[in-house]
Amino acid sequence: MVFNRGKQGKQSSAARTIAKVAAVGIIAGAPLGLAVGTANAAPGMDWDALAQCEASGNWGANTGNGYYGGLQFTQGTWNANGGQGNPANASREEQIRVAENVLRTQGSRAWPACSAKLGAYVGKSAPAPKQQTQPQRKAAPQQRQSAPVQQAPVVALAGSKTNPNGNYEIKAGDTLSKIADANKVAGGYQAIVEKNKDFLTNPDLIFPGDKILI
Asked: What are phi and psi of 212, to 5 degrees?
């Protein structure tokens, strides 16, 4: 009888050991799963939906109009925000990384027509409710809320403005290249930039309703 009890005791100990190992495995695996979910989450823009709007979801778009990739970067914007080479040759992940930099400096108005359709939001994130439950971290949401306020002047200064002597009104979805092609402007979009150099302070960021001289 003692031998039987001892065997049962060993089985119980082994079972408890297996249970502990399984529990540790579950606990150890949990952060990895959470980390993967966090890495895939976009902080303020549905980039796949934006790419669908901008380039029909083609991340390798290169139609010769001066805009490249799924998010339609100009080469200058791409280089200025950490990109290398041609945007159309970059991976989806690399294009999103550079686009995050553009979003931080210019806001969603860097893609005025498509971001308006998507109802893009900036400065909001899922972890905020968790931080509100921790009194010591109440300052963190305030810092995140103040960031868009500081960025707002940057977006306003970066955008172009209307030319009161303009003879063409910009429409949603327009780019300078499209306007130049449609109206057969000699010299292409560069000529439009030259004619409106005092108003097109950022040729990559034009707004529907503004007027330009073509």
From this structure: -135, 160
Smallest Cα–Cα separation from 44: which of 6, 4, 83, 99?
A: 99
Please report which confidence band the pLDDT of residue 139 belongs to, taking 50, 70 and 90 as the band edges: low
Residue 27 clears pLDDT 50, i.e. is over it: no
- Widest CA span in the chain: 105
Neighbours of 142 (CB within 10 A): 10
Check if the beta carbon of residue 158 is closer than 8 Å to that of residue 106: yes
Contact 119, 93 (CB under 8 A): no
- The CA distance from 46 to 121, in Å, is 9
**Helices and strands per DSSP (H, E), number in the chain:** 9, 2
Place of tokens 């940057």: 154
Give yes or no for a contact between 109 and 115, defined as CB atoms under 8 angstroms apart.
Answer: yes
Name, in order, each residue with C-beta under 8 angstroms of 92's C-beta and a sequence gap of 6 or more.
51, 59, 70
123 to 16, 43, 144, 146, 214: CA distances (angstroms)? 47, 8, 6, 9, 37
